[in-house]
Amino acid sequence: MTLKRVVLSILTGLVALVVASSLYESFSQPQVTGQLQLYQSDLLLQASEWDELAGAEFKQLGSALVGAKPLESVAKQYGAVRKEAAAGVVRSQKQLAAQNDAITPQPAKFKTAIAQQQTLIDAIDLKLGIIATKQNNLSDARQHWQSLTDSDGPTADLARVLLGLWATPPVITPTAETTITSQLSGWFQYRVLEQLYTLDDRSVDLAQLNEQEQATAQSKLVKLVAVGTMPVLGCIIGIGVLIVLAGQWLTKREQSLLGKAVSRWEVPWDGEIIWQVLIVGFFFVGQLLIPLVLQLSGLNFAAAGSRGRALYSMIFYLLMSASGIAVLAGSIWTHRPLPKGWFQVKLWDRWPLWGVGGYVVALPLMIGISALNQQIWRGQGGNNPLLQTVLQESDTVALLLFFLTAAVAAPLFEEVLFRGFLLPSLTRYMPVWGAILFSSFIFASAHLSLSEVIPLTLLGAILAWVYTRSRNLLAPMLIHSLWNSATLLGLFLLGS
Prior knowledge:
Layout: H1 3-27, H2 33-47, H3 56-66, H4 70-97, H5 106-134, H6 138-146, H7 154-165, H8 176-183, H9 186-199, H10 203-252, H11 271-296, H12 305-332, H13 351-377, H14 385-391, H15 396-426, H16 432-445, H17 453-470, H18 474-495
Helix pairs in contact: 1-11, 2-4, 2-10, 4-5, 5-6, 5-7, 6-7, 7-8, 8-9, 9-10, 10-13, 11-12, 12-15, 13-17, 13-18, 15-16, 15-18, 16-17, 17-18
């Protein structure tokens, strides 16, 4: 065995250990999906309060969006997420009990996961109690809040305030309003302040609160339209395209777009080059070396706040992209000129049609597989940390940096690496369909979250299929950019 292969073998072992460890750690981490559902539920509750709908058309639209019984549907959604979080706590506690503190640092990870899940459960209990008061079920409300008063901290303080406001007779503490406004937001804050102002006979404040809530409800209804209806319209179009493709395949078979045979690429390098580009260029340099260098540089991006974190994400991704492309270029440099069809970028081509078509087809397929995936993981398995960051971000500059990273830099680099290089290279050793599946699985695993492996494998397969047909990297780049852009826009609308 040559020295090069020895080094590659050592690096492969190290990378495999890190990737396996990251995937294992993600198993105990909560998904952001549950919180996204709760954000959308909060949006629905706020929109349901808009009673100044002008005209029958707007009333019908409002009813269609918020439903006939918004309180019941939101309470059900909160209950489902709470159940998943409680199950996550139990799993993490079992994993923690199985660890040996003397030989592994893992217990800290599980303790953090347990604390995060318990915080989410406490927040849900507070809100379920508020919903129960609107359903005139005070015994359930008190039951949700009472267990939270046993501990110290802001959650316990708020639970005591809520118990006092709905007690008989009511008990209003001097710091009640400050506690409410600092710990609650949206519909839940309005409902509790409404109770406080009513009990305290503050009619002027109550009128101002109602006026403010109407303005907020109107803006939330607009956001609900964007968050709820746009994906539905895209899914309808995507289903229509899928039906047309299926019909074409049934009638034309091998001459159809789905059935047409796709030729392999002429691959001038062997598997060792593929191995080298992936292990050295992407995983070792990108996932291990660059984060270590940035850490040792002494630059404290976190101290700069949200903009610092966003700048760190962009710098990290640009460095990873540059190093990955450099290793790729160096690895295949001696094989120039490359055979026809490699890394094709044809500006004057039908790539916009392929890109938009691939995106709308991906929508219903991804929604379906995500629903199945949610049943498999039950709120666990982790997510890309960028999702949670963007969901809670409000700074415009930081959001712009995140958007440039996810919607521009990521599609450019990842499509060159996974669809431009890996997919065609694998066709030397397997059929095109096998290369599509295998490259898509590697693409999904590279995101280091167990819960994302199945959905991202499907998305990667769609990107790869489009590239094999279009033979133009701009097509999957456009799909990738549209997908990330829509995801970030949805997170921003929900979070804001």
